[in-house]
Amino acid sequence: MTNSKERSASDVLLSMERDIKWLVGWAKSADTNLKLVLNQMNLLNHARMRPQQLPSKPTTTVVERPNPAHEKPKVVQPEELKPITVQQRVVYTQDQRPVILADVKIFSTESGTLMKHTRTNASGFWDAKLPKGLYNLEVKKGPNATKKGFLKKYEVAVTADVGAQELERKLV
Questions:
Q1: Is residue 2 in some structural domain?
Q2: Could you give the CA distance from residue 62 to residue 50 in angstroms, rounded to a whole number?
C-alpha cells in the first residue's frame, strides 16, 4: 500500500537542492543590492562632508615666471613640502641590540600634530616620509622577559634636500 504522492528520497533531495540554490541566489542578489545602497550612501556622505569637514592638503605652490620661449608657467612644489625618507636605528644602550617593535610617534614641533605613527622593524629601524623641519619623537617599548620598558622623547631635524636622510643611532 504505497501512497501515490510519495516521492523517492532522491526526488526530495533534488527538490531541496533546487530550493537551496534559489535561496542562495536570492541572498546573493540581496547582498549585492545592499552593497550598492551602502556605497551610494557613503558617496553622498563624503560629498556632503567634503566642503567643511575633510582636511585639505597644503595648497602652497611656487609659480616660476614663464620663459619667453614657453607659453605656460611651470608650477613647482616648494622644497620644504617635498617629503624626505627619514630613518633611524634604535638600540639598547647596554648591549647595542636593536629595539624590535617599539612604537614610534612623530609630532610636528610647530603644531604638535601627529605626523606619523610607526614601529621599529626586526633590525631596530623605523622610517617615515617627512618634509624638512623639526619633529618631536616618542619611542615607547613595553617590558619583556629580559628588558625593562621605556619611553624616550627627543627632537630630530629633517634637513636633507633630496633622497633620504639617516639619523644618528638612538640609544635607549
A1: no
A2: 26
Whether 66 maps to a domain, the answer reads no
Neighbouring residues of 113: CB distance < 8 A, sequence distance ≥ 6? 107
C-alpha 104/C-alpha 111 separation (Å) is 18
15-45 b/e with 16+ CB inside 10 Å = b? eeeeeeeeeeeeeeeeeeeeeeeeeeeeeee
Q: pTM score, two decimals?
A: 0.53
CA distances from 128 to 28, 62, 158 (A): 42, 25, 11
Q: Is residue 20 part of a domain?
A: no
C-alpha cell belonging to residue 167? 639619523
Cα–Cα dist 32/34, whole Å:
5
139 is a domain residue = yes
9-68: per-residue pLDDT in tens? 888 888 898 999 899 888 888 888 887 777 777 777 666 655 444 444 444 444 445 555
Instruction: Note down the domain range covering 131.
Output: 79-171
Would you call 167 helix, strand, or coil by DSSP?
coil
| Phi and psi at residue 24, to the nearest 5° | -65, -45
For the record, the C-alpha cell of 24 comes out as: 542562495
CATH code, domain with 95: 2.60.40.10
